[in-house]
Amino acid sequence: MIYAVVGLLIGGTLGFLVPFGIPAGYSSLFSVALMACMDSVFGGIKAACSGTFDDKIFISGFFTNSLMAAFLVYVGDRLGIDLYYVALLAFGLRIFNNLGFIRQHLLKKH
Amino acid sequence: MQLEKGRLSIACVCMVLGFMLVIQFKSTEDIRASQPSQRVEELAARLHKAEVENKELEAENRDLRGMSGDAKSEKITDDIMMISGMTPLEGPGVIVTIDDSAKKAKMENDPNLYLVHDEDILKVVNELRAAGAEALSINGQRLTANSEIRCAGPTISVNNVRSAPPFEIRAIGDKDNLVNAINMRGGVADSLKVWGINLTIQPLDNVWIPAYKATVKYKLATTSSKEEETK
Fold this sequence. Notes:
- The complex is a heterodimer.
- By secondary structure, chain A is an all-alpha fold.
- Chain A is 84% helix and 0% strand.
- Chain A has one domain.
- The longest helix of chain B is centred in the N-terminal third of the chain and has 66 residues, at 2-67.
- Chain B starts with a helix and ends in a 22-residue tail after the last strand.
């Protein structure tokens, strides 16, 4: 848990120190990638709760999910399909599912 | 060892996540902040320009007034300044505020009827002038002999300056006369009230009316020595 918080803090400060932002044109791709990352993290916490955590799956899932999500949205944008909303919806649903699972797990434990 | 490696990977992933979160936050803030600040800068520049122009004109005004030596020409200048709207004035009068209707438009009626139009303002101004108003201004624009009251899309243009409702018409004159002229039965206020347009008239002992701020230019007209038109 400590590692996660420290990692978040380091990443956050790095983000603040880096002078550039995301160009407006790519902000939708970036936000989808961000959603995918958050989904992976909550998925990882869920896996840790149920004791099936595997860091290889976790890390590979984290990066491939976000990259694939951004790529799909990019392709969809080129083809005129708004995959952006689909991706947001799918990831959002999964995040809330995972959150629910984590909450139940924590409630059962205590 | 297995656990340690797992924790390290979590830290790495969380670092990436935090980085992305902050970058996203920053770019969203940038997008949100950039538009209003651009607008503010633009407005500030325009205000500055207007102020500089105003100062120049004021200096010019003072010079011109300084030239007329004796008291008589001073008096004439003053009178001309008052008539032409070049000086701010104050005195007893009224402030009429007109705003769009708060009523919901009925389906069968034209929604235009519920909005304040240039014609409504014109009618009010006309009524005030007929009742002996000595000086008038609309939303801070002094009405001079050359002022227009014109529809400009959703706004109304006076002295080529656009303003949106609510409109505040200031008038200096006999308070009672002005109030009665507006509130006359079957008059302007009555006809606007039908559509729920908010017209309030407030008599005051001291109403301040700004000066005309632009320059008067006569490009085509010249003074004529003929007293009567000859055919």
